[in-house]
Amino acid sequence: MDQGVTTRRDGALLVVGDVITDVVARHRGPLAAGTDTVASIRTLPGGAGANVACWAAHAGCADVRLLGRVGADTAAWHERELLSAGVRPRLVVDPEAASGTVICLVDTGAAAERTFLTDSGASLRLEPDDWSDALLDGVARLHLSGYLLFTEPSRALARTALTAARARGVPVSLDPASAGFLTRLGVDRFLAFAEGLDVLLPSRDEACLLTGLPDPADAAAKLSRLVPLVVAKAGADGALVARSGTVPTRIPATPSVPRDTTGAGDAFTGAFLAALLAGADPQEAAAQGCRAGAQAVGRVGARPPIPGSGA
Length: 311
Hints:
Blueprint: E1 12-16, E2 20-27, E3 40-46, H1 48-58, E4 64-71, H2 75-84, E5 87-94, E6 100-107, E7 114-119, E8 139-145, H3 152-168, E9 172-175, H4 179-185, H5 187-194, E10 199-200, H6 204-211, H7 216-223, E11 229-233, E12 239-243, E13 249-251, H8 264-277, H9 282-297
Parallel strand pairs: 1-4, 1-8, 2-6, 4-5, 8-9, 9-10, 10-11
Antiparallel strand pairs: 2-3, 6-7, 11-12, 12-13
Helix pairs in contact: 1-8, 6-7, 8-9
């Protein structure tokens, strides 16, 4: 069975990854160095792993679970936000570190581009002792946030989770998460981990970085010789779906007017995985991912609207 494509439809999605407090500052034009820049600032729940889980639930996945690590300072708030989004959280409270925080600087111009300042805090202090194989009970698909690979304790946890999932025949997906952090980790180290995956969901830039190829389609095809299913997210250019070295299928983007691109890739990933669990083929799942990404960029913040909130 090609586990990257098919799985039983009655199981849960388990996401392992980061839970972060986002401070989103929306400004227009370049930042004024050495003085003030007018901005609209909001504090919102975020984190790539948590965002994926929330978007999967928003896309209709009935049983979404999340393993993450937070500080005592915001543990109760993060748990409430995840529960209200339809996610079943298992949050480890770190006895020493505060919850991770990301400053998201969003230019409110036409592209709504964003720059992140990241303090990972407790989020990447997940360790193998936080894992239990019982977390996989009833799980049909495991998703790992790529941020886990960027510190040794959480990288060890990711290896533990991947090994446990493969022993149970549970397909595993991963989003590389950050081209900047990938460079620091090293492409070879990342690809050695990726050999155990069933699905890889890089951005266009990450796919090119991982292969050294300038064309995203060529990069996706090359990566799919290592990982059976590769879906390269290309923003306004949609997505590329490559399987086992084939020429990628291009999935068009859903038109949108961007306000904040924070979390758009997470929205794609969450909706894509929810669609796979519902029995969609990779192309249709990618189309659903594009629709979720378009919805995400039209909102401020990285999460979907809370059911019943009107937000």
